[in-house]
Amino acid sequence: MGTASIGGYAKAVEAARSDPAKFWGEIAEGIDWIKRWDTVIDDTRKPFYRWFVGGVLNTCYNCVDRHVVNGRGDQLALIYDSPLAGQQRKLTYRQLQHEVAQCAGALRAMGVDKGDRVVIYMPMVAEAVIAMLACARIGAVHSVVFGGFAAPELAKRIVDAKPKVMMSASCGLLPGKAVPYKPLLDEALEIAGVPQTPCLVLQRRELRCDMVAGRDVDWSDAVARVQPADCVPLAATDPLYVIYTSGTTGKPKGVVRDNGGHAVALRWSMEAVYGVQPGDVYWAGSDVGWVVGHSYIVYGPLLQGCTTIVYEGKPVGTPDAGAFWRVCAEHGVNAFFTAPTAFRAIKKEDPEGTLVKKYDLSKFRTLFLAGERGDPDTIEWAERILGVPVIDNWWQTELGWPAISNCMGLEHLPVHPGSPTKPVPGFDIRILDEDGNEKAAGDIGSLVIKLPMPPGTLYTLWNNEKGYEETYLSRYPGYYLSGDAGYIDAEGYGWVMSRIDDIINVAGHRLSTGQMEEVLASHPDVAEAAVVGVADVLKGQVPLGLVVLKSGVKHTDEEICKDLVARVRAQIGAVADFKSVRVVARLPKTRSGKVLRVTVRTMADGGEVKVPATIEDDTVLPEIKAALAALGYPRAG
Ligand code: COA
Ligand code: AMP
User: What is the Cα–Cα distance from 121 to 90, expressed in whole angstroms?
Assistant: First the structure.
């Protein structure tokens, strides 16, 4: 089943809207089923919907084994390219099948069975992908945690997921250093109160780690001595993975993905959205810890029989701003997906794009950008230096695949830089006002998606259906609340402008300022704290904190600020990039006591500050202005 029978963009939108069961039922033929579904879409428990009920399949089989069966055994499935380790490794589909089956066997030997959870805390090595597929093979539910998170964050995920086994590595690699992962893993298990959880640990030659006798299992030894494990039949509705993402509190939300709907949607997105065919080389320059990594380093490309790339490096400095072009040329990349921030980093170092000319990019067809707003400057610059279409796409961890995009496999619509183009067929996007009325074209409002959402999107939060309903489905009955604000213009193009909550986006990483405020406020010297996301030329946004101290504090402001920076790093992780904080005598508030964060942010960004009529005391504003100036805000340019 291909897109050919669906026709162009408008036809596909209409087909998905008028008869979703027929539309998705046809697309589901692109997956190998052990037993076909009874019902395409089960709506008997509204507002909870389930896809392909009664269907039985195995996602790992669809990603790996079936390509071997269908003659792709000798095609490259995975290329590991690490400028940081100075290593490359290439695995054909046949070799990947062997590695995954052995790894699944090792998990089995450690007692992992269908439905058990496995938390994966790994750097960008081939084994991270193998680990995920091994879980999928035996029906274990993986939960991958990004390596840049600190031990307390990892611990929260362990507490919620209750893994039977942890999979990790001795270290990750960053420019100039190996980051020890194992001590963080040990600390997280202690914090979580489950220090005896068995760990399968990959020893990397760059930095080996101590193993806990009787608990830790050496990865290489284990996979060498076990019987391979075969794919088990799973219900389409069985969970495939849980991915935690930032919410408005310190407690991360466990987004759950199923097996059937996910496989159907992800494979189709490869052809319809990304215009990619089996045999193509598809590279997502992200990390397996993020949803982009789950969907477009692992599942999407492999479901579609492409070659995927696991890149352990940076856009700049490994060794230079030509790193991406080197990878694209060397491996014949056809489609490349990354975050705009990476391009801003390259543009800063190589504004004329001179390094592009060093490489043969003749196979490179399309660049996809997502994870944060694609600013027109970056999109136009990328188009100019690469000479290929640059396609922005909007989605979220919860959605799992693009909801607004230019669907390159259906029809290449004109690009309007700054807009990710139009809703992907299956996503019925609306813009609502406070009362739930639809906004007119061009008017900003809350971006929502009419239920049911297509397959592949979340269907619950891990062990928290009530939280799922409350967070996403209750604000506007019948709609999914995205948490983004935006508008749809008269031509039907979507424009995503900002968040309606305290989520910020730092270098494509989703973080909660509320969570950072919790860390600051827990400091013994701090009475109150406010954190806002301020504009940053490179990272899009970075967090900035203002704190009010308790009276009688013994330490200097400087000592406290240094301590606060260290605390956010230790409790949330380096990835939060929390480096700017200042002590102030008071925070600007409304008469009812609400901190005016938007006012602070606007002042820091150098925007026109409209002082709210509800402000308690506007004489505080010059003090805030001075504090921001001391931190270097607003920034020039
Ligand atoms: N393990 C441990 N620490 C990590 C880490 C990991 N896996 N990944 C990042 N960190 C650390 C970094 O070393 C840095 O620490 P520092 O403050 O000591 O320098 C901090 O977390 C912030 O990292 P990062 O956001 O990567 O910033 P950077 O300045 O090192 O690099 C970019 C900036 C733009 C080059 C980088 O963010 C990037 O390549 N982005 C690509 C887009 C992307 O991956 N998006 C994800 C979703 S698609
Ligand atoms: P995450 O869940 O980490 O993928 O982050 C999702 C959030 O990032 C969205 O809710 C948006 O706020 C933002 N985002 C992602 N992609 C885009 C895009 N193409 N345009 C605008 N915002 C985006």
Answer: 22
